[in-house]
Amino acid sequence: MKTISLIACVVGGLVLSSSGRSPTLRVGFGACDITPALDKKVYIAGFGKNRVAKGVHDPLMARVIVLADGQRKIALASVDLVGLFLPVVERIRQRLPGFAYVLVSSTHNHEGPDTLGLWGPNAFVSGVDPAYLKQVEDGVVKAIQQADRQLAPAAARLGRVPVPELLNDSREPYVKHDDLVALQLDDPKGKTIGLVVQWNCHPEDLGAKNTEISADYVWATVAHLHEQHACPVVYLTGTVGGLMSSLRLELKDGQGNPLKEGTFARTEAYGRLVGKAADKAIAAAKPVTLTPFAVERRDLFLPIDNQLYLLAWKLGVLDRQSYRWTGDWRRAEPLGPGDAKADLRKCIKTEIGWLRLGDLDVAAIPGEIYPELVLGKVQDPPDAGADFPKAAVEPSIYGQLTGKHRMIVGLANDEIGYIIPKRQWDEKPPYCYGRMRRQYGEENSLGPETAPLLCEAFRVLTRSDR
């Protein structure tokens, strides 16, 4: 396990520069096209298996902002992919000496290549192309290096706007994280040099039948903002579990006619609505101080109780190191020669992070966390049909952040699946809310202990007496 603490100078509980004044912020933006070539089969991730790409509608991108406070540099990267496992991010970091922290988040795009292994030709074969993963690694590194070369003084403004009408929560209890956050970076003359937009929705609007590579609605959001502001845009995903989607929302064209689901016209319309919401947040943005930096990250171990995931590991469909679970999220034991197929509880290593950028607190969460866990809205009392009605309510993510402003980055440095409140776990009958069948979610989670362990680890990470 590893804990990293990077703080300038602590005086009376406040993080200050040696002069007592906030240091000058410098920022740079970079981007790289990571669209796969279709000279061999590319399996599209996010819905069913054996969905082979037949064309490219719009490019997949790695988009980056690098920030520096005079003492250290951090990079925030976003890729138009369904997810990346932590080992890929660790390889990227190894190639970027001089950075105090590198965060690589995936938008959770359901119309790009399989980068995890779960959407190959069948249940027994991975859909991952190692050569493409290398292309992604190279692209992220290139984009970060490009942004690093562009570093220049900047001032920041931050705005947020609630847009519940742009989210469909498809799982009870219905709780939305509907705040869109926009960060505007300006040069000393007041010209906008870049935007960072964070929104909480699955990029899955094109649906399961699409066979063209696309960034889904994110391409239209970024295109709209680029047209309006003439600057680079970094889109970050946030709280997408629970399940936050644009599917089944009623969207209409300019003449008031309903737009058909699964069409590029509808997906573009949704993406531009997100872009217009970002315009509102930008228009209302207020100056914010983003320096100095404080960065905390920590490895943690989470047990794998999902039997389908365990089978996928045995078959090699999921290519990722596992460990022997010790009962402690802080430590695990390497598997012995005969342990890989042994009947013992296994776990994986993942990572959480907390960034304090001046007045802005950022939580880096490695999966698809439910809004209830972020906002402190876990159902209480629990439904009578819940599998663990006596489970304690997890400490909320935002409840641990004490900065003036807060933001979350989901699928940060890893994709561990859904992070579900334990007392809302519902695999066994009788099902919650009088339903005849269970709701979707648990089949794409490591297990019911994921949320309690991860939220407790995040609480410990943010404690001053850790």
3D structure, described in words:
- By secondary structure, the chain is α+β, with helices and mostly antiparallel strands.
- The protein has one domain.
- The chain is built from seven helices and 25 strands.
- It has helices spanning 86-94, 130-149, 217-229, 264-283, 307-315, 371-375, 450-462; strands spanning 3-7, 9-11, 14-16, 26-33, 55-56, 61-68, 73-79, 101-106, 152-153, 155-162, 168-169, 179-186, 192-199, 212-213, 233-237, 244-245, 286-288, 293-303, 323-325, 332-334, 346-357, 360-364, 368-369, 405-409, 418-419.
- Strands 1, 18, 19, 20, 21, 22 and 24 form a seven-stranded mixed β-sheet that branches. Strands 8-7-6-4-9 form a five-stranded mixed β-sheet, with helices on one face. A five-stranded mixed β-sheet has the order 15-13-12-10-17, covered by helices on one side.
- β19 and β20 (332-334) form a beta hairpin.
- α1 crosses α2 (130-149) and α3 crosses α4 (264-283).
- The radius of gyration is 21 Å and the shape is globular.
Task: Give short descriptive properties of this protein.
five-stranded mixed beta sheet, 7 helices, 466 residues, 27% strand, alpha+beta
Task: Describe the secondary-structure layout.
Elements: E1 3-7, E2 9-11, E3 14-16, E4 26-33, E5 55-56, E6 61-68, E7 73-79, H1 86-94, E8 101-106, H2 130-149, E9 152-153, E10 155-162, E11 168-169, E12 179-186, E13 192-199, E14 212-213, H3 217-229, E15 233-237, E16 244-245, H4 264-283, E17 286-288, E18 293-303, H5 307-315, E19 323-325, E20 332-334, E21 346-357, E22 360-364, E23 368-369, H6 371-375, E24 405-409, E25 418-419, H7 450-462
Parallel strand pairs: 5-14, 7-8, 13-15, 22-24, 23-25
Antiparallel strand pairs: 1-18, 2-3, 4-6, 4-9, 6-7, 10-12, 10-17, 11-16, 12-13, 18-21, 19-20, 19-21, 21-22
Helix pairs in contact: 1-2, 3-4
